[in-house]
Design a protein that fits this description.
214 residues, Nitrile Hydratase, Chain A, two-stranded parallel ribbon, 12 helices, disordered C terminus
C-alpha cells in the first residue's frame, strides 16, 4: 500500500536528470538500450527477491540468522548479493517487542543489491521527514498496525551504511520450504513499512505449502 501523500511530484533534481538523459540519448551519447539493461538488472535481477532469499534463509537457518545479525555484509555476500550501495549493511530484527523501519532523511540511500531500486515514496520529502517525526502515523498510512506495547525504531541510512529489516516470520508457515517462504517476503516488509504475506491465493500459507507437496 502506498499512501498518496508519499507520492510527491518529482524534485527539480529528478526532472533535470530526466532532461539530461533525454538530451544524451537524442545526441547519441548514451544508448537507450544500455539504460534499459541497467534498469532491467535492478528491477528484475537485482531486486527485492534477493533480499527475500536472505530473509527466508534467516527464518530457516538459525546459524545463518546469527551471522546475519552479527555481520550482515558478510552473511549477505554468502548468498552472492554484493555491490554498489550494499558494501556496508546492517540487519535489524523485528520482534513482538520492537518494530523497525528504515528511512534516509538526507536523500535516498538504499540497499540496491538486496532491494533493487528504491520506490518513489521512499525518496519523497514527506516520507523522509515524517518517518522520523511520526513513525506510527506513517505506518498506519501504509496499513501497518503496531501495538502500543511495541516500540518503533527508525534507522537512518546514509552513504556509509544501509539497513535491512528482518521481519517476523508469519505464523503457520512451519512446513513451508525456504523457496516458499521467500515468496511471502515483500519489499516493504524489508523496509519496515509493510509486513510479510500471511496467506496465499486459495488459502493459508501452510495449506498452500501442503497442497504443493501433493
Amino acid at each position: 500500500m502506498v499512501h498518496p501523500r508519499h507520492n510527491a511530484p518529482l524534485s527539480d533534481t529528478a526532472l533535470r536528470v530526466k532532461a539530461l538523459e533525454s538530451l544524451l540519448v537524442e545526441k547519441g551519447l548514451v544508448d537507450p538500450r544500455a539504460l534499459d539493461a541497467v534498469i532491467d538488472a535492478y528491477e528484475n535481477k537485482i531486486g527485492p527477491h534477493n533480499g527475500a532469499r536472505v530473509v527466508a534463509r534467516a527464518w530457516t537457518d538459525s546459524a545463518y540468522k546469527r551471522r546475519l545479525l552479527e555481520d550482515a555484509t558478510a552473511a549477505i555476500a554468502e548468498l552472492g548479493y554484493t555491490g554498489v550501495q550494499g558494501e556496508d549493511m546492517v540487519v535489524v530484527e523485528n520482534t513482538p517487542e520492537v518494530h523497525n523501519m528504515v528511512v534516509c532523511t538526507l536523500c535516498s540511500c538504499y540497499p540496491w543489491p538486496t532491494l533493487g531500486l528504491p520506490p518513489n515514496w521512499y525518496k519523497s520529502a514527506p516520507y523522509r521527514s515524517r518517518a522520523v517525526i511520526d513513525p506510527r502515523g506513517v505506518l498506519h498510512e501504509f496499513g501497518v498496525a503496531v501495538p502500543d506495547t511495541t516500540e518503533v525504531r527508525v534507522w537512518d541510512s546514509n552513504a556509509e551504511l544501509r539497513y535491512l529489516v528482518l521481519p517476523l516470520r508469519p505464523e503457520g508457515t512451519e512446513e513451508m520450504t525456504e523457496d516458499e517462504l521467500a515468496g511471502l517476503v515483500t519489499r516493504d516488509s524489508m523496509i519496515g513499512t509493510g509486513l510479510p504475506k500471511t496467506r496465499s491465493v486459495g488459502g493459508s500459507a501452510k495449506a498452500e505449502s501442503q497442497r504443493r507437496r501433493k
